[in-house]
Amino acid sequence: MSSNRVLNAAVLGATGTVGQRFIVLLSQNPMFKIHSLGASERSAGKPYAQATRWKMSEQMPENVRNIVVKSCDPALYEGCDVVFSGLDASVAGDVEKAFLESEFAVFSNAKNYRMAEDVPLCVPVVNTDHYAVVAAQRAARDKFGPISRVIVTTLQAVSGAGYPGVASLDILDNIVPLISGEEPKMEAEVLKILGGVSSDASVCSPLQDLRVSATCNRVPVVDGHTECVSLEFAGEPPSIDAIKQCLREYTCEAQDLGCFSAPAQVINVSEEEDRPQPRLDRNAGAGMSVTVGRIRPCPVFHVRFTLLVHNTILGAAGASILNAEYAAKKGYIV
Amino acid sequence: MSSNRVLNAAVLGATGTVGQRFIVLLSQNPMFKIHSLGASERSAGKPYAQATRWKMSEQMPENVRNIVVKSCDPALYEGCDVVFSGLDASVAGDVEKAFLESEFAVFSNAKNYRMAEDVPLCVPVVNTDHYAVVAAQRAARDKFGPISRVIVTTLQAVSGAGYPGVASLDILDNIVPLISGEEPKMEAEVLKILGGVSSDASVCSPLQDLRVSATCNRVPVVDGHTECVSLEFAGEPPSIDAIKQCLREYTCEAQDLGCFSAPAQVINVSEEEDRPQPRLDRNAGAGMSVTVGRIRPCPVFHVRFTLLVHNTILGAAGASILNAEYAAKKGYIV
Amino acid sequence: MSSNRVLNAAVLGATGTVGQRFIVLLSQNPMFKIHSLGASERSAGKPYAQATRWKMSEQMPENVRNIVVKSCDPALYEGCDVVFSGLDASVAGDVEKAFLESEFAVFSNAKNYRMAEDVPLCVPVVNTDHYAVVAAQRAARDKFGPISRVIVTTLQAVSGAGYPGVASLDILDNIVPLISGEEPKMEAEVLKILGGVSSDASVCSPLQDLRVSATCNRVPVVDGHTECVSLEFAGEPPSIDAIKQCLREYTCEAQDLGCFSAPAQVINVSEEEDRPQPRLDRNAGAGMSVTVGRIRPCPVFHVRFTLLVHNTILGAAGASILNAEYAAKKGYIV
Amino acid sequence: MSSNRVLNAAVLGATGTVGQRFIVLLSQNPMFKIHSLGASERSAGKPYAQATRWKMSEQMPENVRNIVVKSCDPALYEGCDVVFSGLDASVAGDVEKAFLESEFAVFSNAKNYRMAEDVPLCVPVVNTDHYAVVAAQRAARDKFGPISRVIVTTLQAVSGAGYPGVASLDILDNIVPLISGEEPKMEAEVLKILGGVSSDASVCSPLQDLRVSATCNRVPVVDGHTECVSLEFAGEPPSIDAIKQCLREYTCEAQDLGCFSAPAQVINVSEEEDRPQPRLDRNAGAGMSVTVGRIRPCPVFHVRFTLLVHNTILGAAGASILNAEYAAKKGYIV
Question: Which intervals of the chain form a coiled coil (chains A, B, C, D) (predicted)?
Fold first, then answer.
């Protein structure tokens, strides 16, 4: 398939917050045209504008207002080249399976199949909402040898929990020191993302020798996850300047391929002492760049830093779209 | 001096937020009577109610409304047994020195002399706004051998910066990933607090073999500092249950002496998986207890947990008052 | 019945946020003893501590932890003298009716029967969460003749919506300019509260000649409703000073009867130009006082002012408890 | 002067938040080129990137980073066609006077000369941060006869107070019911904006017969002022539908002239019952549109509604820029 044809895209879970973000991003994307919108039976049959309580700060794109929402039955999605899933994990499992069995190319934010041995956790530029550690690890492994230990504490935005998600009584003038299931997910996913594939390319093989401790907090911030990271290298640690340069120079194949959603700069290294900050830095690179700041020696490990990622763009819908762009450019979507 | 006499107390910096907190706490304290209030030249000569923009959620105690504020000249404080300083660090140095030279017993929140070799960083029950790590360390050292490494990330309330302190534009829908000077202060103070004194009791000798890495963030919370801690023991680590029991059983001399401000329970160990939370737990023990929760194994070090402390009570004015109670009970205030 | 006997109290909806507030207040109240706790079938049969996710900043009273929660069947509440209902409006209708038919004295926060012709909207000291306008009206009517027109804009705290209530994504860095059903409720209730009773005392007769326009907003505040009010008097308006004095001198029968929950000062008149503020003033009078400030001439009507009321204490559970105290003192609870 | 020449613009107060907003907006504006940046003596002589703590969520435009900041002496601004002033009111008076005397065209946000008899409060599309009442009034006056009385309560964002502006301790979990000087300013300015000019065009003549009562609150919102308005017409009131249509059809000369900053839709009329909301609607029309919702009958006056305006764009820098565009198109800038 030529990578230049405009692809017809479906968005499943289109009325939810992740679905709404998909719609905002796709409506600005030259590679995709929104063709179909899927949601629950309750919404099916209604024009999108009527089925949806729009919660984005961008206005609802005119061209989706009158698209009639369908239920999530693959038989109804003929003509779609790509399916983006913003479904909630509680239903994503069965629905995505059905679409896969009908041979659709599915790009999902849901966590259901992320750790399945034969499902890749793709990283075209980016990966999860905890991306920069990964990029740092990759960059470091290539240049400085592997990282052996990571301790990370996150300060995560409420939009990560969807809508209605976090109750206001839980988060105004408050911190919630637990995000259920997030810590083991984060500790496991990073090993898979950084791992390899088996020699016959049939299964993923996670890293074995990296130890990660993640503590995840919910904070009263709308968008943008902040992470405070301390790293230990297995061997001789590089200098702080070498690390900064390595992060600044980090590029990815999606950029080289000219993918629309790939940011000009994958990792912004900030030299200002009080950055990154979610309200000021989350929209860097249209929400597709990571900002890393406060890179400095760690008195316990080798280096520590603070990173910021826009959790609903780079950490969710934006990454799925870039994955799809990458897959199309590479000819994986037939 | 008998410990049962009511002591006349002066509050320096009485119009500021720390000073206001001193006044609220002292007005409920049977051991002290507010005798004198000191502030800047601008306030001197005015009745307290007029000189002050009251910012506490408790009402201004009636009996201080008409006390005429004095300037901070020791000659004006005759009759005071104890001097509490809520002065800003920018002026605390000279003023506190003058009071000391006039032989007043000064209990200060200011950081100016904290690391001076001949000034104790006293811990009657408590110490600084980063107390529980200290208590955990002490408890652990006594029971399980020393802690070798600590990595801590803090989420600190805005009241820690005084008034006006943090600008609302910096903290609404935002995190500030730097608190200027806080990280080295925290990393150094913990060593002094846990250290010993020289054999002739003339100087403090900080711990040498504990390594601490602190990353400090400002978060949109009014009161209550949250800290996410990972610990490594030098030797064989105790079980999680042993650690919990050790923290629960932790007591201090100030409790035994019956100090009014000593909490019934120094450390509350929470078994709820999403606690401590600043809005819900900061007032435990009238703000003088620490709450520790999420005590669990750390995949990188031995144990990790989250703790909460009321930064302007246990972490500031309350600790100074308890120090003074303790000193009086022990006969150190003559 | 003697008013000095301790009354056995039941709390329905005990696991919700209004129910939790009832429990905190009743546990400090000398007139009532918590005897029974009622909630949904899902909670029935479990000890209270296990059935409840405690969300108060006060700790759960020890003596309720082990009370086994019952379902809301009147047959199970033998021995209860008073029933407090913190039930949600969706179930309060049927349940409260059943308790009334079983001849329990029910004090409810739910709105279901508030406007029924034969149900009083009682005002011992206080009434609804929009109390001070009422008190001002009553005070003014007595002293200055009736008020003819009121325009009020509210800024209401999220706790008014219960738990989970307002989603954090709706209120962080935001205002919601609608509280569904609140404006007509407020406009109608004030007429009933200020109205009279028919000559045979069988039905309430709302005021006819007062016009009220209420606009209700939800704001990112945890507790405390703020209201900006402009008033027009039917006749010659009193001076600003006369209004202030009238509000300051306002007392109620519940105070005279020595009801435990009646505040010393029903209405605090603040002379500070930037008060009342919810965080600083909501706890005045243990949450049972109203604070009124910024009383000044209105260029359009006669007078305007800003008032603050603690919506979950004076505006909800506290008012019900005071109603019950008042009813008991007056011998209405047999 | 041809309106198509790119004009050289200076920004005074360039390092402050209003100045930063000017720079963001001007860098995207085809009509102006940033030529000079002025600030206090402390900043003068430094490259802009070094002199400024950048607080915008947009990145600092590359082409201003190296512009050397000047002091605010008109002699240094040769070659500038237009001067935008984001100066603080404390210094704007003298500086703007000096620039005017040197015959610069000055477009200012400062309030110093707003009420001077010979200074117009220009309204190309928009006017102040309380614009929609004005537009409604104008639209209504033209179509329905004049408005006689307005009662408005505002919920204003913290960015309106500049930086550092509102202290976080004053606004987290809180409302501040006073914005010093704002109410009389608002009550007076609306009369001037809606007024006429004398027959010889030498002085402005404010409206005489409109009465306005404004109550202004600060709320924990970053950007976007919300206003709750009740209006009375002098004569027969129009229907709600007629009002909506009138607002929707409202256009202005700046649109007709094709000014770059004029929004496509001056007033967005929302039919959703819970809009406008600051976080969702402030960026409508790139921050240059007003959103009006909840238009409904008022039980006291004739109509009431809620409006939202982006206070630092339409309410400040954006309005000044549009004023300058309009003036240039009309040939007022020579």
Answer: none
